Amino acid sequence: LQMESRMRRALELEEFELYFQPIVHTDSGNLCSVEALLRWNNPSMGMVMPDRFIPLAEETGLIIPIGEWVLEEACKAAVSWKETAGRNIGISVNVSPRQFRDPGFTEAVMRALSASGLEADQLELEITERLILDNSIETAEILRQLDRSGIRLSVDDFGTGYSALSYLKSYPFDTLKIDKSFIQDVMKEPEDASLVRAIINMAHSLGLSVIAEGVEEEPQTHFLKQEGCDFCQGYFYSRPLPAKDFENWLKTNQ
Ligand code: G
Ligand code: G
Ligand code: MN
Ligand code: NA
Questions:
Q1: Which residues form the EAL domain (predicted)?
Q2: Is there a domain that residue 1 lies in?
Q3: Is residue 27 part of a domain?
């Protein structure tokens, strides 16, 4: 209860902060886009990680105003990097189920784009497999609407959702993000290597690009390169960074 009342005030007290993690081209290691990851700096609880507060934010509905704040800040940040980088840098934003199903969601996305001036194709929304598996007409309609407006869509945590793969053919996704649990042991467990290889091939034959998440060691990058994985994200390249640190990373790593 205490956490809930603290969370209710967190937006106005400006306790939320976005961290940014680079997503790079597997072949060159060059920056492609950036995932925005939410943090909550609370004076009495310290830095709270999303796994600890997103579930409560979902339950209470606070995820809706918080999610709008994330969208706005993320889009603004991406626009602000253009000058430093000398080109467009896409931004990926995580969307949770309650936020996605809120009737005002697509409007909130459009507002964030127009307020920041970010082009629609520079924004990617990460949707977890679990959300997609509800198979509802509403989900399909929202995805199509977002797709029509030029926003990119990715399946987050791919492989963890007991997925019925059929949704990949009927929904307008652009990218699969292979869950880090498959990447973690890819050099030790032949089964994980086989799964990753199969996911990459399947995604490509469906016209989707692939991001490997949780890349921590160099040998994994060689494996992923060899298997034709398009993009990588993980501690090997960079941890999620606060805005200032990310801007410094950008100056030296583009
Ligand atoms: O760094 P990490 O601990 O940031 O993130 C943990 C989990 O929290 C991830 O599964 C991620 O999808 C989720 N998450 C991070 N930021 C956000 C956000 O802004 N909105 C939502 N809905 N989930 C987020
Ligand atoms: O949205 P998603 O569930 O994919 O969130 C990504 C999560 O993975 C975040 O919590 C982020 O901090 C974390 N993460 C990013 N790179 C690495 C990595 O190389 N190793 C591990 N263990 N976690 C990572
Ligand atoms: Mn994600
Ligand atoms: Na993930």
A1: 1-254
A2: no
A3: yes
Cα(154) to centroid(ligand 2), Å: 15
Q: What is the C-alpha separation between 156 and 177, in angstroms, rounded?
A: 5
Whether residue 43 is contained in a domain is answered as no
Closest-lying ligand 2 atom to the alpha carbon of residue 50? 10
From 10, 23, 4, 7, select the one nearest 250 (Cα to Cα).
23
A 10 A CB-CB count for 238 gives 19
pTM over 0.90: yes
Q: 38 in ligand 1 pocket by Cβ < 6 Å?
A: yes
Distance (angstroms) between ligand 4 centre and the Cα of 144 equals: 22
Euclidean distance between CA atoms 159 and 28, whole angstroms: 26
ipTM over 0.85: yes
Cβ–ligand 1 contact at 96 (below 6 Å): yes
128 lines ligand 1 (CB under 6 A): no
With b for 16 or more beta-carbon neighbours within 10 A and e for fewer, the 15-46 pattern comes to bbebbbbbbbebeeeebbbbbbbbbbebeeee
The answer to the question of residue 93 being in a domain is yes
Q: 41 C-alpha vs ligand 4 centroid, how far in Å?
A: 23
Containing structural domain, residue 101? 22-32+63-249
pLDDT by residue, tens only, the chain of 254 residues: 799 999 999 999 999 999 999 999 999 999 999 999 999 999 999 999 999 999 999 999 999 999 999 999 999 999 999 988 999 999 999 999 999 999 999 999 999 999 999 999 999 999 998 888 777 888 999 999 999 999 999 999 998 876 678 888 889 999 999 999 999 999 999 999 999 999 999 999 999 999 999 999 999 999 999 999 999 999 999 999 999 999 999 999 87
